[in-house]
Design a protein that fits this description.
Two copies of one chain form a homodimer. With 309 residues, chain A is of the alpha/beta class. Chain A has a single domain, classed as 4-Layer Sandwich (Nitrilase/N-carbamoyl-D-aminoacid amidohydrolase). Chain A is 24% helix and 25% strand. Chain A is built from eight helices and 14 strands. In chain A, the strands form three sheets. Chain A has a six-stranded mixed β-sheet with strand order 5-4-3-2-1-14, covered by helices on one side. Chain A has a six-stranded mixed β-sheet with strand order 6-7-8-9-12-13, covered by helices on one side. In chain A, strand 4 (105-112) and strand 5 (118-123) form a beta hairpin. In chain A, helix 1 (21-37) packs parallel to helix 2. The radius of gyration of chain A is 19 Å and the shape is globular. Chain A starts with a strand and ends in an 8-residue tail after the last helix. At the A-B interface, strand 6, helix 4, helix 5, helix 7 and helix 8 of A face strand 6, helix 4, helix 5, helix 7 and helix 8 of B.
Chain lengths: 309, 309
């Protein structure tokens, strides 16, 4: 039986501070309709898909950012998105800021089945940036202020005939993310990102190098765990702050097989053959045969560096 | 105080089955002399630098391979190499097959100080290949037959004003290798490799993709741990079996800053500023601030894959 999952990576261009969720959802539905025309089984949207990247603004009172968060999902603003996905029989994934009933704040993404069931929920573990206003940065990146680190680990789910996992943005730079997913036999990892094109602590770094680091992390994660990767940007200039593009689909061999070169709303579609993950998983990355966990202790025993004497 | 370590990556061309260790050591000394002329503080040679890549041959009696192993280091064949390094005041690293006094077999590399002291010893943890003759492969890769997995973990040492670590060949494809070194604050990782240009289980893969995977692994390891990486090939055609080149030096930003494009004996030299590792280690890869070890459990708890239900 074929295990080809046709995936649409649905990039969103900029979302301005004043754009309503309803307006964004209309854009998402347009992309979904185009994905359907191109035969997609799954459409993947970015991190914080419903709003601008609000952690760039400092509020002394954190609760002033609460209006960017969703208290339930689906909700009034996204009901039409879920309805259209069900109508198309299309699975989907997107990210949003979540407030739990207990009042906890997470940077979250979900996996939704073709029938509208929310199968998977992931809460971003590796929050970049800082939690207090930092006058030494050219711009603020306050994810550590507005979100708690995810409390769900890196789960994977059986879906679309394979094993599917998620991560979000900065998680992609951490090999631990990929390995915990790989140890569940993941065959498709979907992730969204909002990545400023300027390093707030090293302006000279430049967009080209930041794009290189982005792709390097995706490609290494895909190759070293023999999995498809679908990475989707929110791109363009949001209220004067530029987010880089770089939406792409990476094969289990680590090759970029499809990408979007612009920074607007748009999709790129690729048929991902989940069976293409098997060769790597059974040979060079046959974990059971090759991994030597007796020598990996420090990875889970210590968070920070301990230098040799 | 400047912490620039000028490193020579000293690639060796093919070593044939009948080449003596003495002949190889003469070639290594020639490279060392050239490294000295170019101002090197450290010269790095490949994995199994003293012999051909013998794990390509199957012996029913494993002891028939013992003549490829060294029982002590330095020894009669390598004494002149150690003497020349001391004379130049140059540190060095090279790999060799090691038999311990207890008769254990390892794929080993060492770090030798400028004064000739052996500061560091590493035994390859991630042995690729197989341990019995495999008629389905186009060629044999019997590292699991002739070597035990290393028993020393991934240590790092204070040397040359910085923190230096080693790994060997296939170790570079495993993010665990890099992370255990990174958790010791490593600033320079040296490694040698003997990588067949043909995948014995997937001939169609091709040299170009194998070179891509090689560099991808080095670049991700360097970037994600903010360390210099010096990777040195034994290259060329050994008794009819082709080993790829790809000797290169990678910056803590993950960029290849120097490489060798041929497959013969030769060096490439680069001044590695260990202070260039600091920015990454203190910002995006400030492990203590960003790593969430409570979610990494499976990495050390299980070797193989456990798929979701």
């Amino acid at each position: 039986m074929s295990r080809i999952v046709t995936v649409a990576a649905a990039q969103l261009g900029a979302i301005q501070k004043d754009d309503s969720r309803q307006a964004v959802v209309r854009r998402m539905i347009d992309l979904m309709d185009e994905a359907k025309r191109q035969g997609a089984d799954l459409v993947v949207y970015p991190e914080l898909a419903l709003t601008t990247f609000f952690p760039r603004w400092y509020h002394e009172d954190r609760a002033e950012a609460d209006h960017w968060f969703e208290r339930e999902m689906p909700n009034a603003a996204t009901g039409s998105l879920f309805a259209r996905a069900r109508e198309h029989g299309m699975a989907m994934s997107f990210g949003f800021a979540e407030i739990t009933p207990e009042g906890r704040h997470f940077n979250t993404s979900i996996l939704v089945e073709r029938d509208g069931t929310i199968t998977g929920r992931y809460r971003k573990v590796h929050l970049p940036g800082h939690d207090e206003h930092d006058p030494e940065r050219t711009h603020q990146h306050l994810e550590k202020r507005y979100f708690e680190p995810g409390d769900l680990g890196f789960p994977a789910w059986r879906m679309l005939g394979g094993v599917v996992g998620m991560c979000i943005c900065n998680d992609r730079r951490w090999p631990e993310t990929w390995r915990v997913l790989g140890l569940q036999g993941v065959e498709l990892v979907v992730l969204g990102f909002n990545t400023p094109s300027v390093n707030s602590q090293k302006g000279a770094e430049g967009l080209e190098k930041r794009m290189f680091h982005h792709k390097l992390s995706l490609q290494a994660g895909a190759y070293q765990n023999s999995t498809w990767v679908v990475a989707v940007a929110k791109a363009g200039t949001e209220d004067g702050h530029h987010l880089m593009g770089g939406t792409c689909i990476v094969s289990p061999d680590g090759e970029i097989v499809a990408e979007i070169a612009h920074e607007d709303d748009g999709i790129v579609v690729h048929p991902c053959d989940l069976d293409a993950t098997i060769f790597g998983k059974e040979t060079i990355f046959d974990f059971k045969r090759h991994r030597r966990i007796e020598h990996y202790g420090p990875i889970t025993a210590q968070a920070g560096v301990i230098t040799p004497k």
